[in-house]
């Protein structure tokens, strides 16, 4: 596998379920991101991890809980979601080039989430 | 507030015609701007960045700080250019803000 891989590609869950989205990058990058893509809205940055530390948390509700166990893996744990959380969740990675230069973002194909 | 605006949701042109996808940004600092593209059934990927000043697949984009714009241009559109195009702004650190996107449709 190369690039950024996301699983599952599709997920349907009830509001009381607990599920997780997984992202894995094989590019040797040191920064990983979660974005939310809803219909008719721009991509929304949710979380950023650099060197396994969370460096950005964009006022995301606590029902979304990220985890970055190492620089190659990123999870998004989901619990008690709402129907309005249904969206495409995109994972991305980049190489931190220092001095605030993160370089190009490499995206996964996304996990399509439907909350019933 | 930092913002990226792409005023056109859909742009339709004929093959061989020039195309310009508009992007305006709002940022008080020194911006780093990108164009990303998503072809049908493919993942979102970088098309070009303003720092590189390069032409990719015939596309160019010039940063105009006076007009806070970063429009994407191609003199002769091809059918394979049909895709969703996103303008993006990196404000330093790890924050990249995307516009809402413009769907380009190139007709034969």
Describe the structure using short key phrases:
heterodimer, A: 116 residues, mainly beta, 4-stranded antiparallel β-sheet, 0% helix, B: 108 residues, Immunoglobulin-like, 6-stranded mixed β-sheet, 3-stranded antiparallel β-sheet
Q: What does this entry look like structurally?
A:
The complex is a heterodimer of chains A (116) and B (108). The model of chain A has no long low-confidence stretch (mean pLDDT 90). Chain A is 0% helix and 55% strand. In chain A, the strands form 2 sheets. In chain A, strands 2, 4, 5, 6, 9, 10 and 11 form a 7-stranded mixed β-sheet that branches. Chain A has a 4-stranded antiparallel β-sheet with strand order 1-3-8-7, with no helix packed on it. With 116 residues, chain A is mainly beta. Chain A has strands at residues 4-7, 10-13, 18-25, 31-37, 44-50, 53-57, 64-70, 73-79, 87-94, 106-107, 111-115. In chain B, strand 5 and strand 6 (45-49) form a beta hairpin. The A-B interface holds A 4, 31, 33, 35, 40-43, 45, 48, 50, 55-56, 90, 94, 96, 100-102, 104-110 and B 4, 32, 34, 36, 43-46, 49, 86, 88, 90, 92-101.
Number of helices of chain A: 0
**Estimated structural class of chain A:** mainly beta
Mean pLDDT of chain A: 90
Per CATH, the class of chain B reads Mainly Beta
What is the CATH topology of chain B? Answer: Immunoglobulin-like
Largest interface: A-B, 26 and 22 residues
Provide the succession of SSEs of chain A: EEEEEEEEEEE
CATH arch. level architecture of chain B: Sandwich
Question: How far from one another are the termini of chain B?
Answer: 41 Å
> What is the count of distinct domains of chain B?
1
**Spans where pLDDT lies below 50 across 5 or more residues of chain B:** none
Question: Using only CA atoms, what is the Rg of chain A?
Answer: 14 Å
Please tally the helical runs of chain B, counting DSSP H or I stretches of 4 or more residues.
Answer: 0
- How many E strands of chain A? 11
Written as H for each helix and E for each strand, in order along the chain, the element string of chain B is: EEEEEEEEEEE
Kindly report the name of the CATH homologous superfamily of chain B: Immunoglobulins
What profile does the largest beta sheet of chain B have? Answer: 6 strands, mixed
| Helical amount of chain A | under 10%
- Molecular shape of chain B: globular
Q: How confident is the prediction overall: mean pLDDT of chain B?
A: 93
What separation lies between the terminal Cα atoms of chain A? 32 Å
